[in-house]
From TrEMBL:
This is NitT/TauT family transport system substrate-binding protein. The keyword Signal applies. It comes from the Bacteria. Keywords: Signal. Pfam families: NMT1. The keyword Signal applies. SUPFAM superfamilies: Periplasmic binding protein-like II. GO terms for biological process: thiamine biosynthetic process. InterPro entries: NMT1/THI5 (IPR027939), SsuA/THI5 (IPR015168). It comes from Rhizobium aethiopicum. Residues 42-243 form the SsuA/THI5-like domain. Residues 1-28 form the signal peptide.
Length: 338
């Protein structure tokens, strides 16, 4: 049917209205900064994905990722209001509560902490408890004060004499078969395989009872109070980004990761994604039926109680101030899983 002059006018007005709405939407996008806890890597992939494929933009957000690193201070930038969100963790946020600093976890992307202990494949270490037989454990200071104390409290045989400082090189471990070293599931085992030519024994602390969340979305109470809609949209878009990254085309996200961190390789990225899936780092527990990012009081309390038992936190600390569950566990993005 031919279009009348009147219909053409309405059609033009409609198109113009759509353009104006689109421009207004773009102009109205809320600028958001998210600080990561280390250099860009696959463990940050969902956030980069949401930038790369326009998911943040679809949610009315203009997001800048501020990568962490050895000289970064992104947690301090969050406290000072220089960034809006940070890749925190429950230990940091509960410590902040004890110091009167109002930081709040609003989503838990990693249901399991990727912290592992790594042993030689031919040293007779078959299960987690066997690590107590070793002469040496190479651990960082934070690990010595937290999960090593937890290990001593929950397993027989671990002792202070085993501890030696970890200098972020696998060389001392590789030279000593009677040792184990700390690492992240997604990185150090891969590097050891490359350097030594063997596949090490890997023991995930989370699969042996150590329960902290990891790779959080953390913000301030002031942000929650003043811009709850922005918080919700950032959480939702980030969760969707993670589903896209794990199950969709993540090539553009990986290019952004390598742009921010030129030392990152395709092989390392592929290994990290495979291990996150294999061990249920992101999808396990509550997130299986409530969606990526799910955070519950029960899980948070379990970690708090573990840390109280080894005197990391005071038993009277109100740990519930360190998180809120109102932005997650809604099944957001689950339909995207293929």
């Amino acid at each position: 049917m031919p279009m009348t002059k009147k219909n053409r006018v309405f059609s033009a007005l409609g198109a113009l209205g759509g353009m104006i709405a689109s421009i207004a939407s773009a102009q109205a996008a809320d600028k958001v900064t998210y600080g990561t806890n280390w250099l860009a890597q696959a463990e940050h992939g969902g956030f980069y994905q949401a930038v790369a494929d326009g998911t943040y933009a679809k949610h009315g957000l203009d997001v800048t990722i501020v990568q962490g690193g050895p000289n970064a201070a992104n947690s301090a930038l969050l406290i000072s209001g220089k960034i809006d969100f940070y890749m925190g963790g429950p230990q940091g946020e509960i410590s902040a509560v004890e110091q009167g600093i109002p930081l709040v976890d609003v989503a838990a992307i990693f249901q399991k902490d990727p912290q592992v202990l790594i042993a030689h494949p031919d040293a007779g270490i078959e299960k987690f408890e066997d690590l107590a037989k070793l002469k040496t454990l190479f651990l960082g200071k934070d690990g010595y004060l937290t999960y090593f104390e937890w290990m001593k409290a929950n397993f027989k045989g671990f002792r202070d004499e085993q501890y030696k400082p970890y200098n972020f090189s696998p060389a001392p471990f590789l030279a000593d078969k009677d040792s184990a070293q700390q690492g992240y599931l997604t990185s150090e085992p891969y590097e050891i395989q490359k350097q030594a030519g063997f596949e090490p024994k890997v023991f995930l602390l989370a699969d042996n009872g150590y329960s902290p969340y990891s790779t959080m979305i953390t913000t301030t109470q002031a942000m929650i109070d003043s811009k709850p809609d922005v918080v919700q949209r950032f959480v939702d878009a980030s969760i969707e980004g993670w589903y896209h990254y794990l199950y969709g085309d993540n090539a553009k996200a990986n290019e952004l990761i390598k742009k921010d961190n030129p030392e990152m390789t395709d092989g390392q990225i592929a290994y990290s994604i495979a291990k996150m899936k294999e061990y249920g780092i992101i999808e396990s527990g509550d997130s299986l039926d409530k969606g990526i990012g799910c955070l519950t009081e029960g899980h948070y309390k379990a970690f708090f109680d573990e840390m109280v038992a080894i005197k990391v936190f005071k038993p009277e600390t109100d740990y519930t101030k360190a998180f809120t569950t109102k932005f997650v566990c809604k099944g957001t993005g689950m339909a995207m899983k293929k």
